[in-house]
Amino acid sequence: MKCFFDEIDQACLMMLKGEFTSDHVDNFRRGVLSHLDENKVADFIVDCSELEYVDSQGLESLLWLNELAAERLGQVRLVSVPDQIKTVLNMTRLNSQLPAHDNVRGAMASLM
Questions:
Q1: Which residues, at least 6 apart from 54, have a Cβ–Cβ distance to it below 8 Å?
Q2: For position 76, what pLDDT does the model report?
Q3: Average pLDDT, stretch 19-44?
């Protein structure tokens, strides 16, 4: 999996590309922590449009990101989640903890 970071207003925009599995958790967490050291953001928007698959460790990492954001009084929003991943989020009831939006604009509006 590849993870790209960008800043949008007062939020961190992350793009996940490929498969998010246990093999990628450490790199994901290191990337998030490194980005936080450089930037003082609390809100995260995670673009999942190019995410092909997520396993339980990938989901756990998204929950970790959610907790990290909450510690900073921020929030996490998912964007452009593929249907098969939406199904997993709904089945595991994580959709309430990791709200999904159709686009970045909608996610940004929900943070205000």
A1: 19, 20, 21, 62, 85, 88
A2: 97
A3: 90
Q: Tell me, what CATH number does 67's domain have?
A: 3.30.750.24
Burial class (CB in 10 A: 0-12, 13-18, 19+), 54: buried
Rounded CA-CA distance 72/63 in Å is: 14
Residue 35, pLDDT score: 83
Measure the CA–CA gap between 85 and 24, rounded to whole angstroms: 17
What pLDDT does residue 62 have? 97
Which residue type does 95 have? N
Per the structure, the count of domains in the chain is 1
Judge if pTM exceeds 0.90.
yes
Domain that holds residue 72: 2-111
